[in-house]
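# step 3/5: fold
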Amino acid sequence: MPKPSRRSRTALAALAAAVLGVAGCDAVGGDSPAPSGTQAQKAKPSPKPTPLWDTSPDSIAAVGDSITRGFDACSVLADCPEVSWATGSSADVDSLAVRLLGKTKAAQHSWNYAVTGARMADLPGQMARAATRKPGLVAVMVGANDACRATTAAMTSVADFRSDFEDALSTLRKGAPKAQVFVASVPDLKRLWSQGRTNPMGKQVWKLGICPSMLGDAEALDAAATERRDTVQKRVEDYNEVLEEVCAKDRRCRFDGGAVYEYRFGTGQLSQWDWFHPSVNGQARLAEIAYRTVTGKKA
């Protein structure tokens, strides 16, 4: 093969340089243009998405029943909202609001719309009132009164319980679409009966009509009484399944995973007046459970 001339070698060198340039092999630097396309995406990190759940909400509204009103925690047959697990100001409880907001801010940015005797059917109305505040978090504890009826036949059906809870969340979303929701499970009513049934004062107060489906004829242990209490217990468990399932469909809702239901309330956590509702100590335990759920990492 003949040896290439100087002119041929020069032409080949120019062609090679052009090919290398088209292939993008030269380094970027100086006045070279910045990367584009896929290279640009690699060079510039994507911003982190804003988390849906804020463990430090700036305000709290509470909805529910007598437990959230601190009923029978301070005196017989009376509300005591200052010891409420959700929004109370008592240092003995260290409520969810105080733990999250601090005492001063909690006094101005927490609201308690719970009503003693309320059932799930009342929750949409409470949610509507809570939504007007545009709260960062709504704390929910309701369902005990749906099971605590005059008879087991009078208990709220599971279907109605579900429908009303869905309605309540929908109502909140219309008025406060970004509000977070903490949902506490319904307590283990049968355990509360077992803890208080030997106390003379408690049994006398129970006769006034506190949760008759579970607490009526407190000392009776016959088959009919046992079946009645088991029926109530099963309904509470069904309610908790509903709370978990409906909450799971809302990206800004957290259920306590059954923590309140599973908590082994003893006599120290029960009201000395009715041996059924939480005492001040019991309210503090509820606040602990709520705080762990609100501030914990989602599983």
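# step 4/5: annotate
Strands lie at 60-64, 110-112, 137-141, 180-183, 253-255.
# step 5/5: archive (pending)
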